[in-house]
Structures are given as structure tokens and as C-alpha cells.
Amino acid sequence: ESFGARLPEDFLRHPVVLETMFVNGTEAWYAPQRRWVAENATDDDLSTIAEDPFGRPHVRDEEWRTSHQMIHTLSHLLRYREKIGEDVLDLSPGRNLVVVEWGGGYGALAKLLWRRSLSYGRPVVLIEIDLPFMCAVQEAYLDEVFGMGVMTRGILSSCEAWNLKESRPGVYFVPVGAAPFHMWGDVDLFVSTWALSESTAEAQEFVGVSTNWFQAKHLLLGYQTLRAPFAPSTAFVGMFPESILVEKMPWGPPFQFYAFL
């Protein structure tokens, strides 16, 4: 409600956003993560993380002109590439890459995937499933960054007959209550970085059992183990495919894990 009709130009400094969606960690967290990214990122990788002025994000790194948040987000993709041996953009050669993200925050990963899509010439169809208010926040932010409708394709109330592979590249927003059980099958990658472990047990069962991870061929998950205040935070771990690779996150707060497939 404090945002009003449009996002304020400094909304990334709002206390709720800083507490829940925008990473600006301690030096003990930031320094090793930044060092690892520097050792594993290409120049093309780093060219996609420069921060945008809208939102007034905290710029932590003057050399890369970026925030800890964008370094953190890039590290997820680089960690996946190191462990699986393939960049996420190469998971669907010769056609649109279809990615479903469960809980997109303010839009950091969507922004990064779109930039990398343009940089590497790989068309991406990104489906953001989130609370209706957060879908609106993500759409508004990405429109501010890239221009109205340049990458955003609107908030959908129904997607029963959606041909994912033939869809126009860009990001589509699906309020969580409109996400159907049965229309998936063309999804290349399911992503959720902490949103799933902060979801209800019912929501986790919907993702891991009812949709079978949206029938995605690949998974990239960041999550926290069982700890207050998110009591059901490890329920979905029992729904993992047998071949999934799990590792403790090498930086940041304790009890944080990655899962890759």
C-alpha cells in the first residue's frame, strides 16, 4: 500500500524490500561470493549485471557497477553451470528456452535472464508464478528498466491452452491461484530461490507432487533448512528426483542449500 499507484524511484530501499528481497550481506558473506564470481564468470557474464538507476539499489561494487543482489543472482546461474556442466541458456538448443520461476521477488532473476538472453542470442519464455501483488511489482519494475512491454507480456488469469514453445519470448506473469495442474510439459527449467522454502506445505505439494515440478527437465533451487519462522521449509526436499545434486551454499547465512538437476 505504501507504493501507491506506481513504484517509487527508490523502492529498492524500502525496509520490507531490503529485509526480504534485496541481498546486501555482511562483508564475510559478500567477499568470498564476489571472489568466486570473479574467478568463474566470463566478461559476457559480468556485462549483464550492471545495476539500473531505477529503484536506487545499493551499488556495492564500483568495478562492476553492481549490487550484492545482482552478484548473488548471477552466482546461482554460475553455480548451476559449474555443477551441471551446462549454462541454463543452453538447455533448449534451437528453440525457445522455457523457464518457470516460483516466486520472483522484485524481478532480479527475470532481469538477469533477459539480459543474458539478449547477450547470448537465446530466446527465453519466462513464466513468473507469484502472489498477484508481486506479479504487479515485477511487471512494473521490468517495464521501468527495459521499457513498457519490451520484455513483459502481461499478467495472465488463464493459461489452459498455452503453447509455451511457440510463445513470444519475454516474461509472463501468472498469479499463483491461476497456475493450472495440467498444462505443463514444455518446461526446460524450474527455478525457485528461497520462495519455495518460504511457501506453505500445500504450495510445496502443489509444485513437487501435483505438477511434478511443472514437469521441468531441469531444476535450480535455493532453499533453507527447517528453522523458524518457516516451519514447512523442508517438506519439498522429500519430493526431489533421485538424481538431483544437493550442496550446502558456500557463503551467506547458515542452513542454506542449492539443489541442481
Can you give a write-up of this model?
This protein is an alpha/beta fold. It is 30% helix and 17% strand. The protein has helices at 15-20, 27-40, 43-46, 68-84, 108-120, 132-146, 201-210; strands at 97-102, 124-130, 152-155, 170-175, 189-193, 218-224, 245-248, 256-260. An 8-stranded mixed sheet has the order 3-4-2-1-5-6-8-7, covered by helices on one side.
Write the layout of secondary structure elements.
Layout: H1 15-20, H2 27-40, H3 43-46, H4 68-84, E1 97-102, H5 108-120, E2 124-130, H6 132-146, E3 152-155, E4 170-175, E5 189-193, H7 201-210, E6 218-224, E7 245-248, E8 256-260
Parallel strand pairs: 1-2, 1-5, 2-4, 3-4, 5-6
Antiparallel strand pairs: 6-8, 7-8
Helix pairs in contact: 2-4
Order of helices and strands: HHHHEHEHEEEHEEE
Low-confidence stretches: none
Say how many strands there are.
8
| pLDDT averaged over residues | 89
Cross-sheet strand order for the largest sheet: 3-4-2-1-5-6-8-7
Strand pairing plus helix content: what structural class? Answer: alpha/beta
Major sheet size, sense and barrel closure: 8 strands, mixed
| Strand residues, percent | 15-25%
Features:
261 residues; alpha/beta; eight-stranded mixed sheet; 30% helix
Brief description of this entry?
This protein is an alpha/beta fold and 261 residues long.
